[in-house]
């Protein structure tokens, strides 16, 4: 329920980490990433946790229809990062689809 707060989210994260670490140990590997990958792994985990907390707050403070519509645009962020960080090229239909998805998100948020 609404009074649970962040407890289910935190417990789910702890259990997932424990299961993953256990799987690594059973296979004879260290659950810690290599030294060069630690900072990006920690950053990714922190961003993921922050996104989950932001979603939880949004669900409790805004209309669920609006929140779910905007969250469904998350793949568009991945496509934008791939384009600008990795230099991936879009086809015309892909670009048009992305523009339509972003325009729809603006329309939904405006009401």
Describe this structure in words.
It is a single chain. This protein is an all-alpha fold and 111 residues long. The chain contains five helices and no strands. Helix 2 runs antiparallel to helix 3 (64-71).
How would you describe the shape?
A: flat
Q: How many runs of DSSP E, i.e. beta strands? A: 0
How confident is the prediction overall: mean pLDDT?
88
Number of distinct helices: 5
Q: How widely separated are the two ends?
A: 28 Å
SSE string: HHHHH
Helix content: over 70%
- Could you tell me the strand content as a percent range? under 5%
Kindly name the structural category: mainly alpha
Biggest β-sheet strands, sense, barrel = none
**Rg (C-alpha, Å):** 18 Å
Short recap of the structure:
The chain has 111 residues and is mainly α. Helix content is 78%, strand content 0%.
Characteristic terms for this protein:
0% strand, 111 residues
List the helices and strands and how they pair.
Elements: H1 7-26, H2 35-61, H3 64-71, H4 74-86, H5 92-110
Helix pairs in contact: 2-3
């Amino acid at each position: 329920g609404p009074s649970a707060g962040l407890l289910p989210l935190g417990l789910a994260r702890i259990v997932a980490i424990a299961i993953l670490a256990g799987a690594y140990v059973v296979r004879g590997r260290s659950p810690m990433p290599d030294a060069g990958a630690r900072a990006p792994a920690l950053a990714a985990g922190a961003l993921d946790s922050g996104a989950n907390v932001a979603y939880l707050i949004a669900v409790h403070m805004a209309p669920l229809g609006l929140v779910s519509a905007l969250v469904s645009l998350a793949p568009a962020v991945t496509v934008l990062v791939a384009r600008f960080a990795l230099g991936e090229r879009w086809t015309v239909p892909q670009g048009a689809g992305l523009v339509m998805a972003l325009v729809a998100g603006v329309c939904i948020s405006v009401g």
